[in-house]
């Protein structure tokens, strides 16, 4: 590491504003780690990993602290933390031999083609369809909220392959090349000024049987595994360092110091409240991790606790940071690359767009606090809303009665037909 890695923390690529040069550098560094044997430490040896136990992964992470490891943006996190882990659990040996070594080497980044404009919380209601054509498949439809798809190489796509069975049964996962003929990727501008999310359109995209992940029409089983990893139910991702911060909410202490409010009693109370929440959150996640390791059959549903704690905790913490930051959290000046004040905007409020335009914030903590506040509801929606997590916990962990369902057991084709005339006044 001393001879091949730079000292310092990860570059922290802006979500939705990923520089192609930075991603290329991240891929090259990922390749060097792969060739040195430091990626996929716990992944199967036959697919390019090292086949070692988690204690080796923990040792690497400990030694790697203080070095800059590959930063592949949001698509990198999805690739290693969700998609590859799901593939390893369900894909064929031939599929894994084709893709996993290339993932470990940084040559392939995968994103999720999961949600649709008309299938968000009801993920089993997807309408993107794959139809048999000779020895392959033809894909048509649309996906949305695919983080980082604009610079990824592949997408894991959930499509309907049988319309005459209940909605959870006729689903199949496919690996779709992002640059394949018929695939169109459009970026979605967000409230922060970033454009991390994408929508994809599939027009007669030709796929082969070798692109199927798992079994045809058994895609919901694969989806359950993906949701577990997406909600924090997985083990180490193999390429990133982890570890809880030390001290009392150090980011908020630094924010209070930078804004001259560290001695303020109210500010100190807010910092301690956040610290208590941080400690409780880490303790809960540690307990959940142990429970999931000892009860793998319940891992998906236990992961809903981890997802829910982020959905509840993140907005509270972002609000605390905003209250500590005060006016400095919403008002700052931008500085050009030469250090001069950009556009004469001394003290003017700056949107995310301004930060994206070859300008950078000055020393004010405002940009980080403001973007954090705008993004704070992310985990209460993405990957399943707080309400969906509570349903899962209530029904699958606590054993409470299931909510009524009007489409249980019906062929999905009939569900769509009946929905056209359904209203709250009809049974």
Automatic annotation (TrEMBL):
<protein>
    <submittedName>
        <fullName>Acyl-CoA dehydrogenase</fullName>
    </submittedName>
</protein>
<dbReference type="InterPro" id="IPR052161">
    <property type="entry name" value="Mycobact_Acyl-CoA_DH"/>
</dbReference>
<dbReference type="InterPro" id="IPR036250">
    <property type="entry name" value="AcylCo_DH-like_C"/>
</dbReference>
<dbReference type="GO" id="GO:0050660">
    <property type="term" value="F:flavin adenine dinucleotide binding"/>
</dbReference>
<dbReference type="InterPro" id="IPR009100">
    <property type="entry name" value="AcylCoA_DH/oxidase_NM_dom_sf"/>
</dbReference>
<dbReference type="Pfam" id="PF02770">
    <property type="entry name" value="Acyl-CoA_dh_M"/>
</dbReference>
<feature type="domain" description="Acyl-CoA dehydrogenase/oxidase N-terminal">
    <location>
        <begin position="27"/>
        <end position="107"/>
    </location>
</feature>
<keyword id="KW-0560">Oxidoreductase</keyword>
<feature type="region of interest" description="Disordered">
    <location>
        <begin position="349"/>
        <end position="368"/>
    </location>
</feature>
<dbReference type="GO" id="GO:0016627">
    <property type="term" value="F:oxidoreductase activity, acting on the CH-CH group of donors"/>
</dbReference>
<feature type="domain" description="Acyl-CoA dehydrogenase/oxidase C-terminal">
    <location>
        <begin position="217"/>
        <end position="398"/>
    </location>
</feature>
<comment type="similarity">
    <text>Belongs to the acyl-CoA dehydrogenase family.</text>
</comment>
<dbReference type="GO" id="GO:0005886">
    <property type="term" value="C:plasma membrane"/>
</dbReference>
<dbReference type="Pfam" id="PF02771">
    <property type="entry name" value="Acyl-CoA_dh_N"/>
</dbReference>
<dbReference type="InterPro" id="IPR013786">
    <property type="entry name" value="AcylCoA_DH/ox_N"/>
</dbReference>
<dbReference type="InterPro" id="IPR009075">
    <property type="entry name" value="AcylCo_DH/oxidase_C"/>
</dbReference>
<dbReference type="InterPro" id="IPR006091">
    <property type="entry name" value="Acyl-CoA_Oxase/DH_mid-dom"/>
</dbReference>
<dbReference type="InterPro" id="IPR037069">
    <property type="entry name" value="AcylCoA_DH/ox_N_sf"/>
</dbReference>
<feature type="domain" description="Acyl-CoA oxidase/dehydrogenase middle">
    <location>
        <begin position="114"/>
        <end position="205"/>
    </location>
</feature>
<dbReference type="InterPro" id="IPR046373">
    <property type="entry name" value="Acyl-CoA_Oxase/DH_mid-dom_sf"/>
</dbReference>
<dbReference type="Pfam" id="PF00441">
    <property type="entry name" value="Acyl-CoA_dh_1"/>
</dbReference>
<keyword id="KW-0285">Flavoprotein</keyword>
<keyword id="KW-0274">FAD</keyword>
């Amino acid at each position: 590491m001393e001879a091949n890695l730079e000292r310092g923390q990860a570059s922290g690529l802006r979500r939705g504003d990923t520089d192609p040069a930075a991603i290329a550098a991240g891929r090259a560094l990922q390749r060097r780690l792969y060739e040195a044997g430091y990626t996929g430490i716990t992944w199967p040896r036959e697919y390019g990993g090292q086949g070692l136990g988690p204690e080796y992964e923990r040792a690497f992470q400990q030694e790697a602290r203080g070095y800059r490891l590959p930063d592949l943006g949001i698509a990198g996190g999805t690739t290693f933390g969700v998609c590859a882990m799901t593939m390893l659990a369900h894909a064929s040996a031939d599929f894994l031999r084709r893709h996993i070594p290339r993932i470990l080497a940084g040559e392939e980044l995968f994103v999720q083609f999961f949600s649709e404009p008309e299938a968000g919380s009801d993920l089993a209601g997807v309408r993107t369809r794959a139809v048999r054509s000779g020895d392959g498949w033809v894909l048509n439809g649309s996906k949305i909220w695919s983080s980082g798809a604009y610079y990824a190489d592949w997408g894991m796509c959930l499509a309907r392959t049988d319309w005459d069975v209940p909605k959870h049964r006729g689903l199949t996962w496919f690996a779709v090349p992002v640059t394949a003929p018929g695939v169109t990727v459009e970026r979605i501008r967000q409230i922060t000024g970033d454009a991390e999310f994408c929508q994809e359109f599939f027009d007669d995209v030709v796929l082969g049987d070798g692109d199927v992940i798992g079994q045809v029409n058994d895609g919901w089983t694969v989806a359950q595994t993906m949701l577990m990893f997406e909600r924090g139910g997985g083990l180490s991702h193999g390429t990133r360092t982890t570890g809880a911060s030390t001290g009392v909410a150090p980011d908020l202490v630094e924010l209070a110091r930078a804004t001259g409010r560290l001695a303020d009693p109210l500010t100190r109370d807010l910092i301690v409240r956040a610290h208590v929440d941080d400690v409780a959150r880490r303790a809960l996640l540690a307990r959940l991790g142990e429970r999931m390791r000892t009860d793998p059959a319940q891992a998906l549903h236990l992961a809903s606790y981890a997802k829910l704690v982020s959905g509840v905790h993140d907005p509270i913490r972002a609000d605390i940071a905003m209250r500590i930051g005060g006016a400095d959290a919403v008002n700052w000046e931008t500085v050009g690359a030469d250090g001069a004040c950009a556009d004469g905007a001394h003290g003017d409020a700056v949107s995310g767009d301004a930060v994206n335009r070859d300008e950078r914030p000055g020393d004010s903590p405002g940009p980080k606090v403001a973007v954090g506040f705008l993004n704070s509801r992310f985990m209460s929606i993405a990957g399943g809303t707080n309400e969906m997590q509570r349903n899962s916990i209530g029904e699958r962990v606590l054993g409470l009665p299931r909510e009524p369902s009007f489409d249980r057991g019906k062929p999905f084709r009939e569900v769509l037909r009946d929905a056209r005339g359904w209203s709250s006044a009809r049974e």
